[in-house]
UniProtKB/TrEMBL annotation, chains A, B:
Pfam families: TetR_C_24, TetR_N. Residues 10-70 form the HTH tetR-type domain. PANTHER family: HTH-TYPE TRANSCRIPTIONAL REGULATOR RUTR, TRANSCRIPTIONAL REPRESSOR MCE3R. It comes from the Bacteria. Residues 33-52 bind DNA. This is TetR family transcriptional regulator.
Length: 195, 195
DNA sequence: GTCTATACGGGGATAGAC
DNA sequence: GTCTATCCCCGTATAGAC
């Protein structure tokens, strides 16, 4: 396994992504320079361009990776039971997943406008796919007569916004832990959609 | 009413604020230059500094103005009836106010991190004051036995996030108008808090 | 109040040596 | 794969004339 001098490709790539995520979340994409990212990793600027063609691609890969993680994690966590149990699973999953990745979530919501039109569209499709998972649960529950929902599309967007909003105020070590928060949200969601 | 050459102070100030609001909302605070704002208004850069000490103050005045408008408008719209009517009024007011000012709302949520620590704290207090208006309604309704709410603080934050979320997907000319949207949200909110 | 000109620093990205 | 050096452009803010 001979290695050329100074080569650390297996670990440098992830370290660049981690530094970019932290810095973008803290200061915003536009406010962070490639020089800052390089310094954070312990590199000179030029070396970054061995790992990303440009700054935009770095942002896109963070957002895309986050959305793919989200989809994969839900597919793994989703039960194949009835609508009510699936809705509860979705509520608890969404809150837990988002609270566990505050930086990725922050970037995913705040930096969309810094994507090129093409990249923006790609992330938009991934987000829509995820929302469809929730809407299908609501449609199934309504078809079975368990839910009373006038407009499943609207309710989907309302619930997603409510659940994701947790990330704007939640702090580790606060009054309520993630499970207690999820309990409260689940009870509100259940009442809001119940027949 | 003699006026010095090129003086347009009465209208230039508001035009600068309007241009800054539009550009900040579209491209983000950090991505917009003072040169762009000046060009949009039809001035040279230097002239902007007759109206604002720096770019930060320009952002802060937009955010502060938005929050003060919000508070003033709610005080004027709030009925002095029972909790249920006040909650309905709040839901409808919040949606209508936010949908009428998409740019100001966008900036108010996305550009908080570009404020200095001191200015951030000031906006945080204004936001908290507004949230208190809703929480008081929830507390009153619970005291009267009309609402079933486990945690009024949590419910306040959940409802605000849900209602504000409308601005992320609403488009003029879409399937539902502002009133139809408000009708749906009010019915969800009512079910979620009812005893 | 507005203009022109400028100071001064920093931005993204690339070239070529090692 | 990384470094140093550099290109070229743009950022905020100020000075001083009109």
């Amino acid at each position: 396994m001979a290695r050329t001098q100074g080569s650390h490709s297996e670990i440098t790539g992830p370290r660049i992504h981690a530094a970019a995520q932290r810095l973008f979340a803290r200061h915003g994409f536009a406010a962070v320079s490639m020089r800052q990212i390089a310094a954070d990793v312990g590199l000179q600027v030029g070396a970054l361009y061995n790992y990303t063609p440009d700054k935009q691609a770095l942002l896109f890969s963070l957002l895309e990776g986050h959305m793919l993680d989200l989809m994969t994690a839900w597919e793994a966590a989703a039960p194949s039971s009835g609508p009510l149990a699936r809705l509860e699973a979705f509520v608890r999953f969404h809150i837990a997943f988002h609270l566990a990745r505050p930086e990725a979530v922050f970037i995913a919501y705040m930096e969309l406008r810094n994507l090129t039109e093409e990249n923006f569209a790609k992330i938009g499709r991934l987000r829509h796919d995820y929302e469809q998972r929730l809407e299908q649960i609501l449609r199934d529950g309504r078809a079975e007569g368990r839910f009373d929902i006038a407009d499943t599309k609207l309710t989907t967007l309302a619930l997603i916004a409510m659940l994701t909003g947790v990330t704007t105020w939640y702090r580790d070590g606060g009054r309520l832990g993630p499970e207690a928060v999820a309990d409260h949200y689940w009870s509100m969601v259940l009442k809001a959609v119940s027949a």
